[in-house]
Amino acid sequence: MGEFTITKEKILQALSTVEEPDLKKDLVTLNMIRDITVGVNQVTFTVVLTTPACPLKELIKKNCTDAIHSHFGNGIEVNINMTADVTSIRNNAPLLDGVKNIIAISSGKGGVGKSTVTVNLAMALKKSGARVGIIDADISGPSIPLMFGAENMQPLISQKNGKNMISPIMQYGIKMISIGFLTPPDSAVVWRGPMASQALRQFFGDVDWGELDYILIDLPPGTGDIHLTLVQTVPLTGAVVVTTPQKVALADVNKGISMFRQPQINVPILGIVENMAYFTPSELPDNKYYLFGKDGGKTIAEKYNVPLLGQIPIVQSIREGGDEGRPIMMDDEPITNEAFKSAAEALAQQVAIRNASGQKTARVEIR
Ligand code: ADP
Q1: Are 30 and 20 a contacting pair, CB within 8 Å?
Q2: DSSP category for residue 66
Q3: Which CATH code is given to the segment(s) 3-84?
Q4: Which of 34, 84, 270, 277 can pair with 350 through a Cys bridge, CB separation 3.0 to 4.6 Å?
Q5: Per-residue model confidence (pLDDT) at position 115
Q6: Neighbour order of strands in the sheet with 33-39
Q7: pLDDT tens sequence across 302-344
Q8: From atom 17 of ligand 1, which residue's Cα is the shortest distance away?
Q9: Nearest protein Cα to ligand 1, atom 15
Q10: Angle subtended at Cα 338 by Cα 217 and Cα 52, rounded to the nearest 5 degrees
Q11: Mind listing the pLDDT tens digit for each residue in 238-260?
Q12: Partners of 240 in the β-ladder
């Protein structure tokens, strides 16, 4: 190769041959390359990803290095800082203005592991470096406080701009609110529909959430008032549907998906999480037993043409983690960690794709 000087412009030219595989545009067009510095036989720059949970992080990094080497020779040392700035289409939102993405976690039936999945997806996103919150919208059966070992915590009230605001509970690095923090444990309050809806609205309007990349909303099972209140209160980035592979669970998933897809509601389905997909005994990690049937979630994802975000195995420690108030994602258990991590990455990926499409979800007006 002859004598030449590497300039920032030439680096940008080289990197404009690298495509973001999900967004199908090159990194320069997407404004993902920043802070280029050129030294003697070396170049340093930053790649700003659309989420810290990007499953393509290593691939993108490698493709950048390869592009520099193929343009300037293998003798160049390439230093890449991989960072992320989570994308959002929620500009100037009247509620939760510091929150980039609001994601509803739903299920057709109770007991399929919706709360367990919410908690561990949140932990996995947090572990990747994202700022995460949870709203427990299951007003009559809140399980978030228990699953986070936070049953006895009480949120503080503080004044902000002359208004009393609730500070969310912070546990294990995640901000959260639940009716369970605001009523005495074991209290026999019966939440009628309008009261429950009012409580949910307060979680949006009266809680000081600050800045977050993702808020996950743990919905009650099925379809009901709370779902309608939610879509009428804030525009969602999208919804996730949790199911087991069992036929009886899948029948109700159809209803859930149809609700979000009704023309007047029109909330995008970001994907399906198939929970309790199989059982693997820890002493025989290669054996999988399909207790509730095989690939039920996968089949339904194909039927509705939505991504299958993940298949989570049945593991005793997942249940124990929930009961003991210490989500399993806090521990380094390879099988469960991998399952929740890849589901969280797939979710973050779908959020980024949705945001890049530029389409906004409208708040639902029902008269
Ligand atoms: P839902 O929110 O859908 O009602 P939960 O998250 O409360 O369901 O889960 C129901 C029960 O199943 C809980 O005891 C939970 O610990 C357990 N559970 C959920 N997912 C798994 C799993 N993948 N492996 C083992 N136990 C699980």
Answers
A1: yes
A2: H
A3: 3.30.300.130
A4: 270
A5: 98
A6: 33-39, 42-49, 77-84
A7: 999 999 999 999 999 999 999 999 999 999 888 899 999 999 9
A8: 319
A9: 319
A10: 60
A11: 999 999 999 888 888 999 999 99
A12: 105, 271
For residue 348, what are its two tokens? Answer: 């973050």
Angle of CA points 265, 255, 244, to nearest 5° = 125
Q: Which ligand 1 atom sits nearest the alpha carbon of residue 336? A: 23
Mean pLDDT of 114-140: 97
For 88, half-sphere exposure in the C-beta direction (CA atoms, 13 angstrom radius) is 21
In residues, how long is the chain?
367
Spatial CB neighbours of 91, under 8 Å, sequence gap ≥ 6 = none
Same-fold call for 3-84 versus 99-356:
no
Q: 0.70 cut: is pTM over it?
A: yes
What is the model's pLDDT at position 366? 64
pLDDT at 327: 97
Q: Is any atom of ligand 1 closer than 6 Å to the C-beta of 120?
A: no
* 314 Cβ closer than 6 Å to some ligand 1 atom: yes
Pick the CATH number of 99-356 from 3.10.150.10, 3.40.50.2000, 3.40.50.300, 3.40.190.10: 3.40.50.300
Cβ atoms within 10 Å of 270's Cβ, excluding its own? 27
76-90 residue pLDDT tens: 999 999 999 999 988
Cβ–ligand 1 contact at 311 (below 6 Å): no
Q: What's 143's DSSP letter?
A: -
Residue given tokens 């693997």 in the structure block: 280
Query: What is the pLDDT at residue 188?
Result: 60
pLDDT > 70? residue 4: no
Structure tokens at 327: 């989500």
Alpha helices in 73-143, H assignment, sequence order = 114-128
Q: The tokens 């521990």 sit on which residue?
A: 331
